Protein backbone atom coordinates (compact mmCIF):
# COMPACT_ATOMS: atom_id res chain seq x y z
CA UNK A 1 0.00 0.00 0.00
CA UNK A 2 1.27 3.48 -0.74
CA UNK A 3 2.05 6.31 1.64
CA UNK A 4 -1.26 8.13 1.09
CA UNK A 5 -3.44 5.35 2.47
CA UNK A 6 -3.68 4.60 6.19
CA UNK A 7 -4.62 1.03 7.07
CA UNK A 8 -6.82 0.59 10.13
CA UNK A 9 -8.59 -2.37 11.63
CA UNK A 10 -12.33 -1.89 11.17
CA UNK A 11 -14.53 -1.55 14.24
CA UNK A 12 -16.56 -4.69 14.99
CA UNK A 13 -19.71 -3.32 13.28
CA UNK A 14 -17.82 -2.87 9.99
CA UNK A 15 -15.55 -5.93 10.12
CA UNK A 16 -17.63 -7.91 7.61
CA UNK A 17 -18.09 -4.88 5.34
CA UNK A 18 -14.42 -4.37 4.46
CA UNK A 19 -12.80 -5.68 1.31
CA UNK A 20 -9.93 -7.32 3.22
CA UNK A 21 -8.77 -7.40 6.83
CA UNK A 22 -8.01 -3.68 7.05
CA UNK A 23 -9.86 -0.53 6.06
CA UNK A 24 -8.02 1.67 3.56
CA UNK A 25 -8.48 5.25 4.77
CA UNK A 26 -7.70 8.01 2.27
CA UNK A 27 -7.86 10.86 4.77
CA UNK A 28 -8.67 14.40 3.74
CA UNK A 29 -5.14 15.65 4.49
CA UNK A 30 -3.75 12.90 2.23
CA UNK A 31 -6.18 13.97 -0.52
CA UNK A 32 -4.92 17.58 -0.18
CA UNK A 33 -1.28 16.50 -0.35
CA UNK A 34 -1.89 14.17 -3.28
CA UNK A 35 -3.64 16.93 -5.21
CA UNK A 36 -0.88 19.47 -4.47
CA UNK A 37 1.70 16.93 -5.64
CA UNK A 38 -0.31 16.22 -8.80
CA UNK A 39 -0.65 19.94 -9.59
CA UNK A 40 3.09 20.48 -9.17
CA UNK A 41 3.83 17.48 -11.40
CA UNK A 42 1.56 18.50 -14.29
CA UNK A 43 2.20 22.25 -13.97
CA UNK A 44 5.92 22.72 -13.20
CA UNK A 45 5.33 26.48 -13.20
CA UNK A 46 3.16 26.07 -10.08
CA UNK A 47 5.95 26.35 -7.53
CA UNK A 48 4.06 27.87 -4.60
CA UNK A 49 0.93 26.15 -3.30
CA UNK A 50 -1.01 26.15 -0.04
CA UNK A 51 -3.03 23.58 1.85
CA UNK A 52 -5.39 24.49 4.67
CA UNK A 53 -6.06 21.47 6.87
CA UNK A 54 -7.82 21.72 10.20
CA UNK A 55 -6.44 20.32 13.45
CA UNK A 56 -8.24 17.00 13.06
CA UNK A 57 -6.62 16.39 9.68
CA UNK A 58 -3.17 16.62 11.27
CA UNK A 59 -4.15 14.06 13.90
CA UNK A 60 -5.36 11.58 11.28
CA UNK A 61 -2.47 11.86 8.83
CA UNK A 62 1.24 12.70 9.28
CA UNK A 63 1.39 15.80 7.07
CA UNK A 64 4.93 16.76 8.02
CA UNK A 65 6.23 13.19 7.69
CA UNK A 66 4.68 12.82 4.24
CA UNK A 67 6.13 16.12 3.00
CA UNK A 68 9.57 15.32 4.42
CA UNK A 69 9.37 11.90 2.75
CA UNK A 70 8.93 13.75 -0.56
CA UNK A 71 12.02 15.88 0.02
CA UNK A 72 10.33 18.99 1.47
CA UNK A 73 11.83 20.56 4.60
CA UNK A 74 9.97 22.72 7.10
CA UNK A 75 11.77 26.07 6.70
CA UNK A 76 9.32 28.47 8.38
CA UNK A 77 7.23 26.90 11.16
CA UNK A 78 3.88 28.59 11.84
CA UNK A 79 1.36 28.19 14.62
CA UNK A 80 1.37 25.68 17.43
CA UNK A 81 1.14 22.42 15.49
CA UNK A 82 4.19 20.34 14.61
CA UNK A 83 3.31 20.49 10.91
CA UNK A 84 2.17 24.07 10.20
CA UNK A 85 4.43 26.31 8.13
CA UNK A 86 6.30 26.64 4.85
CA UNK A 87 8.00 23.60 3.33
CA UNK A 88 10.59 23.99 0.61
CA UNK A 89 12.12 21.57 -1.89
CA UNK A 90 14.36 23.38 -4.35
CA UNK A 91 12.22 26.00 -6.10
CA UNK A 92 8.97 24.42 -4.89
CA UNK A 93 7.14 25.57 -1.79
CA UNK A 94 4.06 24.34 0.06
CA UNK A 95 2.50 26.39 2.84
CA UNK A 96 0.55 24.37 5.40
CA UNK A 97 -1.73 26.89 7.11
CA UNK A 98 -4.63 26.19 9.43
CA UNK A 99 -6.55 29.29 8.34
CA UNK A 100 -10.16 28.27 7.59
CA UNK A 101 -12.33 29.47 4.73
CA UNK A 102 -9.60 29.80 2.09
CA UNK A 103 -10.08 26.45 0.36
CA UNK A 104 -8.27 23.19 1.07
CA UNK A 105 -5.76 23.61 -1.77
CA UNK A 106 -4.94 27.04 -3.16
CA UNK A 107 -2.50 28.07 -5.86
CA UNK A 108 -1.94 30.30 -8.84
CA UNK A 109 -1.69 29.05 -12.44
CA UNK A 110 -0.87 31.98 -14.68
CA UNK A 111 -3.57 34.57 -14.01
CA UNK A 112 -6.01 31.96 -12.62
CA UNK A 113 -6.44 31.21 -8.96
CA UNK A 114 -6.87 27.47 -8.32
CA UNK A 115 -9.09 26.48 -5.39
CA UNK A 116 -9.89 22.90 -4.43
CA UNK A 117 -12.15 21.55 -1.72
CA UNK A 118 -11.17 18.04 -0.66
CA UNK A 119 -12.90 15.23 1.21
CA UNK A 120 -11.60 11.82 2.20
CA UNK A 121 -13.06 8.43 3.02
CA UNK A 122 -12.59 4.67 3.17
CA UNK A 123 -11.74 3.15 -0.21
CA UNK A 124 -12.57 -0.51 0.36
CA UNK A 125 -15.79 -0.30 2.37
CA UNK A 126 -19.10 -1.97 1.67
CA UNK A 127 -20.65 -0.43 4.79
CA UNK A 128 -23.66 1.65 3.77
CA UNK A 129 -22.87 4.44 6.24
CA UNK A 130 -19.29 4.81 5.01
CA UNK A 131 -20.35 4.65 1.36
CA UNK A 132 -22.88 7.37 2.10
CA UNK A 133 -20.12 9.42 3.75
CA UNK A 134 -18.08 9.24 0.52
CA UNK A 135 -21.04 10.45 -1.56
CA UNK A 136 -21.85 13.14 0.99
CA UNK A 137 -18.21 14.27 0.89
CA UNK A 138 -18.45 14.92 -2.85
CA UNK A 139 -21.70 16.83 -2.39
CA UNK A 140 -20.20 18.85 0.46
CA UNK A 141 -17.07 19.74 -1.53
CA UNK A 142 -19.23 20.95 -4.44
CA UNK A 143 -21.47 22.87 -2.04
CA UNK A 144 -18.51 24.61 -0.42
CA UNK A 145 -17.30 25.73 -3.84
CA UNK A 146 -20.77 26.93 -4.86
CA UNK A 147 -20.92 29.09 -1.74
CA UNK A 148 -17.65 30.90 -2.61
CA UNK A 149 -17.44 34.11 -4.58
CA UNK A 150 -15.96 32.92 -7.85
CA UNK A 151 -13.88 35.84 -9.06
CA UNK A 152 -12.32 33.99 -11.97
CA UNK A 153 -11.23 31.03 -9.86
CA UNK A 154 -10.74 27.60 -11.32
CA UNK A 155 -12.54 25.37 -8.82
CA UNK A 156 -12.15 21.66 -8.12
CA UNK A 157 -13.98 19.19 -5.87
CA UNK A 158 -11.45 16.44 -5.05
CA UNK A 159 -12.48 13.13 -3.46
CA UNK A 160 -11.38 9.47 -3.49
CA UNK A 161 -12.40 7.39 -6.48
CA UNK A 162 -14.77 4.57 -5.56
CA UNK A 163 -17.63 2.99 -7.48
CA UNK A 164 -20.04 5.21 -5.56
CA UNK A 165 -18.19 8.50 -6.05
CA UNK A 166 -17.67 7.68 -9.74
CA UNK A 167 -21.40 7.10 -10.30
CA UNK A 168 -22.32 10.28 -8.44
CA UNK A 169 -19.63 12.33 -10.21
CA UNK A 170 -20.92 11.21 -13.61
CA UNK A 171 -24.41 12.45 -12.69
CA UNK A 172 -23.17 15.72 -11.17
CA UNK A 173 -20.45 16.60 -13.69
CA UNK A 174 -22.59 18.39 -16.34
CA UNK A 175 -24.22 20.72 -13.80
CA UNK A 176 -20.96 21.28 -11.95
CA UNK A 177 -19.20 22.27 -15.17
CA UNK A 178 -21.93 24.85 -15.85
CA UNK A 179 -21.11 26.30 -12.43
CA UNK A 180 -17.38 26.28 -13.18
CA UNK A 181 -16.55 23.34 -10.91
CA UNK A 182 -14.53 20.34 -12.04
CA UNK A 183 -14.80 17.04 -10.15
CA UNK A 184 -11.53 15.18 -9.58
CA UNK A 185 -11.54 11.57 -8.37
CA UNK A 186 -8.18 10.39 -7.01
CA UNK A 187 -7.17 6.74 -7.06
CA UNK A 188 -5.22 5.16 -4.19
CA UNK A 189 -1.97 6.47 -5.71
CA UNK A 190 -3.21 10.07 -5.69
CA UNK A 191 -3.65 10.21 -9.46
CA UNK A 192 -6.88 11.53 -11.03
CA UNK A 193 -8.70 8.58 -12.56
Output the CATH class name.
Answer: Alpha Beta
Say how many strands there are.
11
Main sheet: which strands, in order across? 4-5-6-3-7-8-10-11
- The helix-and-strand class reads alpha/beta
The CATH topology turns out to be Trna Endonuclease, Chain: A, domain 1
Shape: globular
Sheet with most strands: 8 strands, mixed
Helix content: 25-40%
Strand content: 25-35%
pLDDT under 50 segments (min length 5)?
A: none
How many separate domains make up the residues?
1
The radius of gyration computed from the alpha-carbon positions, rounded to a whole number of angstroms, is 16 Å
Count the helices. How many?
5
CATH architecture group name: 3-Layer(aba) Sandwich
Note the run of SSEs as H and E.
EEHEHHEEEEEEHEHE
The whole-number mean of residue pLDDT values reads 95
